[in-house]
Write a sequence for this structure.
C-alpha cells in the first residue's frame, strides 16, 4: 500500500523526532512549512469553539501524559454496548499500543483515561475511515485535531482568566 507508506514517512518527517532518509536515494528528508500551500483563511463569526456532543458514538480526547507515551490523541467508539479505544501519538500520528475493546460505554469502560489533563476534542470520522487509516490517521486529520486542541486551550485560558478576575473583584486586596 504505497499511499500509506508515503503518508507515514511524511508524518515522521513533519514530526521531526528523528532523522529520516529517503528510501531510494538516501538523502535526508526535512519538512519546511514555508513550502505548504496556505489556503485563504475562512472568516467565521464564531465567538466560541464548537463543543462536541457529550452523548455520541465517537469521542476524541487529548492527553498530555498518557502512560509512558507522552502526548496522545485517543478515540473511543461505542458500539452495541462495547467500547473500542485507539491511541495515536499526537506528533507523528502513529498508533500507540493495542486497540482495546471493553464492555460498556467508553467513560465506564476506560475510566483510567479521564484524568485532569484529558481535553475533549471535536472529531467525527466514521468507523470505516478509522479502519481505512490503519495505524495512522492522515495528516489532515491530525491538523484538524491540533487546531481544535489549540482552540480548547485558548478557551480554557480565557475561562481561567475570567474566574481569576471575578475572584479578585469579590475579594479586593486589603490596603
Amino acid at each position: 500500500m504505497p499511499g500509506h507508506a508515503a503518508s507515514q514517512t511524511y508524518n515522521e518527517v513533519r514530526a521531526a523526532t528523528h532523522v529520516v532518509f529517503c528510501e531510494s536515494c538516501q538523502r535526508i528528508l526535512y519538512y519546511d512549512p514555508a513550502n505548504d500551500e496556505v489556503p485563504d483563511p475562512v472568516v467565521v463569526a464564531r465567538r466560541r469553539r464548537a463543543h462536541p456532543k457529550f452523548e455520541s458514538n465517537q469521542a476524541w480526547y487529548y492527553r498530555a501524559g498518557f502512560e509512558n507515551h507522552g502526548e496522545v490523541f485517543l478515540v473511543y467508539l461505542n458500539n452495541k454496548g462495547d467500547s473500542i479505544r485507539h491511541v495515536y501519538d499526537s506528533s507523528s500520528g502513529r498508533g500507540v499500543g493495542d486497540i482495546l475493546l471493553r464492555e460498556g460505554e467508553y467513560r465506564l469502560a476506560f475510566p483510567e483515561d479521564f484524568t485532569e489533563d484529558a481535553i475533549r476534542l471535536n472529531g467525527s470520522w466514521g468507523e470505516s475511515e478509522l479502519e481505512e487509516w490503519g495505524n495512522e490517521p492522515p495528516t489532515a486529520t491530525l491538523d484538524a485535531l491540533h487546531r481544535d486542541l489549540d482552540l480548547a486551550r485558548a478557551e480554557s485560558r480565557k475561562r481561567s482568566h475570567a474566574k481569576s478576575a471575578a475572584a479578585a473583584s469579590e475579594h479586593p486586596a486589603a490596603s
